[in-house]
Amino acid sequence: MRMVMKMAAVSTISLLLLCCSAISSTDSKEVCDYLATGANFTVPMMSTVVESDRLRWKHDNKYIVDRKAGEFLEGNKMLISENGSLKLTNVMKKNSGSYVPEVFDKDGAKKLIKFEVKGLCVIDPVLKPVVKPACKKPANVQFTCDVQAKQTKDHNFEWLMNGVLEKEKSQTLTRQADQVKTDSFSCRVSNKVNSMTSAAVVQPCIEITSFFPETLLGINTWIFVGAGGGVVLLLIIVVIVCCVRSKRRKRLQLKEEGELRLAWTNDQHQHHQHNHPQEQHPHQQSHHHHHPHKQPAGHTGPRQQRSKQQHPRNPDQPGARPLPSPRRPAQAPRPPGDIDEEQPPPLPQPRKIIKKAAKAQRV
C-alpha cells in the first residue's frame, strides 16, 4: 500500500514539473524580443536607481556591468543610461539571451526593483527577394521566390498578382501561361524582424504580340515616336510664327497703300483747282464790274489809278446822255464733254508699281 502511495506521489510531482517547464518555456517565448543583427536596443529599468547604489547587469549568468559608487568595476558608462537601463548597440547573434539587473544600497542590502525580464533573439533580416520564372510543360509557368539565404525555415512567403495578394504561401507559384499573359507577379518575404518585396515580373513562355514593334532599325520604337512628336511640335511653332509675320506684313502693306492713295488724291485735287479755276457767279461779276479791283493781300506797290468808266455819247446831240453800253452776250453753257469731273482714285496696285508711279508723278 505504501509503495502504491509513493508511486502516486512521484507521478504527481513529475506531472507538476512537466507543467511548470511547459509554462516556463511558453513564457520565455512570449517575452523574447526579436532583433535584427546590427540593430540597437535598450533593456528598460522600471525602478529609480541613484548614483550611490550598486548596479549590476547579468547576461546569461555573466556580469557585463558592475557599477559601485559611480565607478565601473565591469563595463563602462556607455552601457548604462541615467535611470540605470542597459543600452545595447550593434547587436549580434551572440547577444541573444536573457538580461537581469541587480541593485544594492550603499550598505550592501539588496533592493527590490521593477524591471522587465527580456530574452533577446537576434536573427538576420531578410534581403530583397528576386522572382525567377521558368516554363514548365505542358503550358505552365512557375515562379520561384529566391531569398538568397541558406535557411528559410523562419521565412514567410506571400505572392502578389498585379499588386493583389494571392492565397499561396509557398516559395513557388505555378500558373497556366495562357491565362496570365500580361499579368505581373511579385513575392513578399518576411520574418520576425522585417519584410521585403521583390520587383514584379511577367511570364516569358507566351510571346505577347504588340501593335508596335519593340525595335525599329535596332532602335527602340518609342524613341522614334518621341522624335516624331518633337518634329511635329517644331513644325507647328514654325507655321504659327510664319502666319504672324505674314499677317503683320500685310497690315503694314495696307497701311502704306492707304497713305499713298490719300497723297495721290490730294495731288489730283490740287492739280484740278490749278488748271480749272472756279467760275464766278453772275451776281459776283456785276459786283466786280461796278467796283474797282482790290489789291491783293500783302501788296506793297503803288496803288493803281481809279478811272471812271467812259460811256459813249451821242455825237449828234451835244449834252445828251451817254448811250448805254451793249449787254454782254450770254455765255453759252459748256458742253457736257468739257466739264472736268473728278476721277475716282485708282485701284490698289502692288507696292513696287505704286512707288514707281508716285516717283514719276513727283518728277
Write up what this structure looks like:
It is a single chain. This protein has 363 residues and is α+β, with helices and mostly antiparallel strands. 29% of the residues lie in helices and 23% in strands. Among the domains are: 25-123, Immunoglobulin-like (Sandwich); 130-202, Sandwich (Immunoglobulin-like), CATH 2.60.40.10; 212-262 and 347-363. The strands form five sheets. The chain has a six-stranded mixed β-sheet. Strands 11, 12, 14, 15 and 16 form a five-stranded antiparallel β-sheet that branches. A hairpin with a 3-residue loop joins strand 9 and strand 10 (140-146).
Topology:
Blueprint: H1 2-30, E1 32-36, E2 41-43, E3 54-59, E4 63-68, E5 71-74, E6 86-88, E7 97-104, E8 118-123, E9 130-136, E10 140-146, E11 156-161, E12 164-165, E13 172-176, E14 184-190, E15 195-197, E16 201-202, E17 215-216, E18 219-220, H2 221-275, H3 282-290, H4 351-362
Parallel strand pairs: 1-8
Antiparallel strand pairs: 2-6, 3-4, 3-7, 4-5, 7-8, 9-10, 10-13, 11-12, 11-14, 14-15, 14-16, 17-18
Helix pairs in contact: 2-4
Give a quick precis of the structure.
The protein is 29% helix and 23% strand. The chain has helices at 2-30, 221-275, 282-290, 351-362, and strands at residues 32-36, 41-43, 54-59, 63-68, 71-74, 86-88, 97-104, 118-123, 130-136, 140-146, 156-161, 164-165, 172-176, 184-190, 195-197, 201-202, 215-216, 219-220.
Main β-sheet, in a few words?
6 strands, mixed
What is the string of SSEs from the N terminus onward? HEEEEEEEEEEEEEEEEEEHHH
Strand order of the largest sheet: 1-8-7-3-4-5
Shape call: elongated
CATH architecture of the domain at 25-123: Sandwich
Mean pLDDT: 75
What is the name of the CATH class of the domain at 25-123? Mainly Beta
Task: Give the DSSP E fraction (strand runs of 2 or more residues).
Answer: 15-25%
Fraction of residues in helices? Answer: 25-40%
Number of strands: 18
Q: So, the CATH homologous superfamily of the domain at 25-123? A: Immunoglobulins
* Low-confidence region ranges: 1-30, 279-294, 305-312, 337-341
